[in-house]
């Protein structure tokens, strides 16, 4: 159990408070124990672990990164059933990892963080949750950017008489069979659930602002023989993971330095579209007019065939408003529907958690980031001492496994705590000059990437058009940059007894 005790004021005092139990939060807890630190808690607003893989349970939910790469290096899973695993299997994996590493006693379920305020006098984070108060020397935010669904503010939506929900909050109690359903959005979630519900609904109207690039999903069952080999000879699975990693690392240059190289892949994607969609009018609606890779490339063998079915209509425009049970597209088209399902993504460049964290100067992280998210090495933020992010600004990936980035940031977290001990400081606060140098370098590198030059508008970009989400390099490069904490980039904070 966490060794921190509660004072007479009822506040539980710990060295480290971690927020979230997705890959980042569970990984942080495991790493803390590996470092010999037991004085911590993991605060989770839900009643089970899993993060986005708990919350996203929509039909067809699966990962678009190969299973053997989408797992912790220290916790390989020889039992993955498919080369690209589904949500139930990934969630089960996270439950197993939680139990295998014995970290469940440190988790406080049902503890939604309402505020976290830096107390300059004590050099500690004062944390208020829905079930109690905590005080921590170090605060680790592992909420992740895919935590809070984003639903557009549409005129008339509140008065819609039918069912409304976001894909990340799927209403499994609502029977879609025979219903007239409007789906808003054509991102990574929509291309997975649309083929599943198309088989059930009476009519499906898909509102598409921008068509995605879609490639075939090279998915298959992993045989019992293969799984037996992975169990008995772990080196084989490790070698496969290394091969998958190498291939993905080799692709990075095309996205970050030489987008023109992607023209060949565009031709393959267009051939895939022609093969599945014979109707020239529909095919024109589904043909992207921007460079391959500018928006996240999606993988599906069933999306295009589903859209070609007679009970599906693609509206090549966004949803403009709702009038009673009628949804109205930006093109003026009107459609009577019984339900609206939003596949409109998440608050990524405007992380809701930032509104609840108050730094040394008395302003929130949301205020600090009003002109765009920024952090030193994607992890720490000037003016917010002893606050570390797992999956912070500019740590996202467009083509590989986020678990690789998470493990790099866990290395940085471990060294951060070591440096605190070694220096005797109460806290470390990144200097604004170090943070500015880091982020200027990241944004300079970003100017050549396909995400900034590909001619699209994606969720990678904030309101000012800056890419504050993705990492413009390889995972190996990021790991080198986060291997150790450079104390010259930090101010040391001490507290007199």
CATH topology of the largest domain: FAD/NAD(P)-binding domain
The CATH class of the largest domain turns out to be Alpha Beta
Q: Give the fraction of residues assigned to helices.
A: 25-40%
Strand share of the residues?
A: 15-25%
| CATH-defined architecture of the largest domain | 3-Layer(bba) Sandwich
Write the layout of secondary structure elements.
Elements: E1 12-19, H1 23-34, E2 40-44, H2 52-55, H3 87-100, E3 107-109, E4 113-119, E5 124-129, E6 132-141, E7 163-166, E8 180-184, H4 190-198, E9 203-207, E10 214-215, H5 224-232, H6 234-256, H7 263-276, H8 280-285, E11 298-299, H9 303-307, E12 312-315, E13 319-323, E14 326-329, E15 334-336, E16 339-342, E17 357-358, H10 365-368, E18 380-381, E19 384-389, H11 402-423, E20 427-430, H12 432-446, H13 450-453, H14 475-481, E21 490-493
Parallel strand pairs: 1-2, 1-6, 2-3, 4-17, 6-19, 7-16, 8-9, 8-16, 9-12, 10-11
Antiparallel strand pairs: 4-5, 5-6, 13-14, 14-15, 18-19, 20-21
Helix pairs in contact: 1-11, 5-6, 11-14
Keywords: FAD, Flavoprotein, Monooxygenase, Oxidoreductase
EC number: 1.14.13.-
Enzyme class: oxidoreductase
């Amino acid at each position: 159990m966490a060794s921190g005790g509660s004072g007479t004021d009822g506040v539980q005092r710990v060295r480290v408070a971690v927020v979230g139990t997705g890959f980042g939060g569970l990984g942080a807890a495991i790493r803390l124990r590996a470092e010999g630190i037991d004085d911590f808690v993991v605060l989770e607003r839900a009643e089970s672990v899993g993060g986005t893989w708990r919350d996203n349970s929509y039909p067809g939910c699966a990962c678009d990164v190969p299973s053997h790469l989408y797992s912790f290096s220290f916790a390989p899973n020889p039992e993955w059933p498919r080369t690209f695993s589904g949500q139930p299997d990934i969630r089960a994996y996270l439950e197993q990892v939680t139990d295998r590493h014995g970290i469940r006693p440190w988790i406080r379920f049902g503890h939604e963080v309402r505020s976290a305020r830096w107390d300059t006098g004590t050099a500690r984070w004062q944390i208020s949750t829905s079930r109690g108060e905590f005080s921590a020397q170090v605060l680790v935010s592992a909420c992740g950017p895919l935590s809070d669904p984003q639903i557009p503010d549409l005129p008339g939506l509140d008065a819609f008489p039918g069912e409304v929900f976001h894909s990340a909050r799927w209403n499994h109690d609502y029977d879609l069979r025979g219903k007239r359903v409007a789906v808003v959005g054509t991102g990574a979630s929509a291309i997975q659930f649309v083929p599943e519900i198309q088989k059930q609904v009476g009519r499906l109207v898909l509102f598409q602002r921008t068509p995605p690039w879609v490639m075939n999903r090279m998915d298959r069952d992993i045989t019992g023989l293969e799984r037996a080999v992975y169990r008995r000879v772990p080196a084989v699975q490790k070698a496969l993971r290394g091969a998958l990693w190498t291939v993905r690392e080799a692709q990075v240059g095309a996205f970050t330095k030489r987008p023109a190289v992607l023209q060949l892949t565009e031709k393959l994607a267009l051939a895939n579209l022609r093969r599945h969609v014979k109707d020239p009018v529909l095919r024109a609606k589904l043909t992207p007019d921007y460079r391959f890779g500018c928006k996240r490339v999606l993988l599906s063998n069933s999306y295009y065939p589903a859209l070609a079915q007679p009970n599906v209509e693609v509206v090549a425009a966004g949803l403009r408003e709702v009038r009673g049970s009628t949804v109205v597209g930006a093109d003026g088209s009107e459609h009577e529907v019984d339900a609206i399902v939003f596949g409109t993504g998440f608050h990524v460049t405007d992380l809701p958690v930032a509104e609840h964290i108050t730094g040394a100067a008395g302003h929130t992280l949301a205020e600090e980031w009003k002109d765009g998210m920024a952090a030193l090495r994607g992890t720490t933020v000037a003016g917010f001492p002893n606050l570390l992010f797992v999956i912070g600004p500019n740590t996202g990936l467009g083509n590989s496994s986020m678990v690789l980035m998470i493990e790099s940031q866990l290395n940085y977290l471990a060294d951060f705590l070591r440096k605190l001990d070694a220096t005797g400081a109460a806290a470390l606060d990144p200097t604004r000059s170090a943070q500015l140098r880091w982020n200027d370098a990241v944004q300079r590198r970003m100017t050549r990437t396909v995400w900034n030059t590909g001619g699209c508008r994606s969720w990678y970009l904030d309101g000012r058009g800056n890419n504050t989400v993705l990492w413009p390099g390889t995972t190996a490069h990021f790991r080198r940059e986060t291997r150790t904490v450079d104390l010259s980039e930090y101010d040391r904070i001490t507290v007199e007894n």
